[in-house]
Specification:
Strand content: under 5%
CATH class: Mainly Alpha
Distance between the termini: 43 Å
Mean pLDDT: 92
Radius of gyration: 16 Å
Largest sheet: none
Structural class: mainly alpha
Low-confidence stretches: none
Shape: elongated
Number of domains: 1
């Protein structure tokens, strides 16, 4: 696989991660009653969105297509999972737990991209920013467990 293809694959994977993060926050935000938790989630959403916009900006250097996003089935499964898991328990602790699980998966995927993909510095820097943002999010979410 060429370095250009690696860059496209990394950006596609990263775009899926940011999209899933934004979707999860969007799906769960209406269940959150605590203002502090809502504020944390809104900040995290904006951080995902900022990285997502950076992906779109540099993607055109490697491809004339659009970055891959999560498909409708994944979006539906995310929504359904949140609905089921918060049906009986909409506490801050439960919401933080669900978001922590997804965020940790994002960190793992981000670390794999950093460790196993040969990408340009600009692309790797964006992956590192994504991982750093998610690691910070984990620390914030832990406060609500």
């Amino acid at each position: 696989m060429s370095k250009e293809e690696n860059n496209i694959n990394v950006l596609d994977d990263l775009n899926k991660g940011t999209t899933m993060g934004m979707d999860a926050i969007t799906f769960i935000l209406d269940k959150v009653e605590d203002k502090k938790l809502k504020d944390v989630l809104n900040i995290q959403y904006n951080e995902y969105k900022e990285i997502n916009e950076e992906i779109v900006n540099i993607y055109s250097k490697y491809s004339d297509k659009e970055p891959h996003e999560t498909n409708a089935v994944n979006k539906a499964m995310t929504w359904y999972g949140i609905e089921i898991k918060t049906f009986m328990d909409k506490s801050n602790s439960k919401i933080a737990e669900l978001l922590l699980q997804g965020t940790n998966m994002g960190i793992i995927e981000g670390r794999k991209l950093l460790n196993h993909k040969d990408a340009d510095k600009k692309v790797n820097d964006l992956v590192q920013k994504y991982v750093d943002m998610q690691e910070k999010a984990v620390e914030e979410l832990k406060k609500f467990l």
